[in-house]
Amino acid sequence: MPDTPMLICLAIAVSVPEHEMILSKLICEEKTMVLILNILWFIFGGGLISSLLWLILGALFFISVAGIPFGIAAFRIAGFAAFPFGRQLVDSRELGETRIIGTGLANFLWIVFAGIWLAISHIIAGAGLCLTIIGIPFGFAHFRLAGVCFAPLGKKPVPK
Q1: 12 and 82: one domain?
Q2: Distance (Å) of CA 158 to CA 28, 50, 72, 148, 155
Q3: pLDDT at 22 over 80
Q4: Same structural domain for residues 64 and 14?
Q5: Which of 29, 30, 136, 146 is deepest in the core (most CB within 10 A)?
Q6: At 150, phi and psi to the nearest 5?
């Protein structure tokens, strides 16, 4: 039985005119590739470990009332860390949301207490994965996560 992206591709192929068939086939192949990359990332590239560490960090932040916004941001990034391909993190202001007062100060405190260490760990993991040709996409995913470590508050994952 074909997997879900293939069924979606078949449904798209049946419902579009012939001149749009090539474009829809490329979109379906891209979605299938994103799914494959996310599965490989989760199992072999560090997605499981990264997401678990972000979840643990979020749970630790929920111990104090002042840490709740950091915990929410860590949980949001844990989902992105588990399956980063096909998505990107954008500033919530780009989505039309207002930024909470003090987010800049909170991001600075995040960098000092947690962000720099998380970024270093993602950079080391990314550099190690980039030593092999197969690991390069996974290394780049770790580099994207390292960039997020510097300002996680006010970021939202959206499809590319």
Answers
A1: no
A2: 19, 19, 16, 14, 10
A3: no
A4: no
A5: 146
A6: -90, -20
Same domain, 36 and 84: no
Compute the distance between CA of residue 139 and CA of residue 160 in angstroms, rounded to an integer. 19
What is the torsional sign of CA 4, 39, 35, 81? positive
- Which residue is listed with tokens 């390292």? 146
Range of the domain at 14: 1-43
pLDDT in tens, 81-130: 999 988 888 887 888 877 777 788 888 888 888 889 889 999 999 999 99
Closest CA to 145 of 79, 69, 72: 79
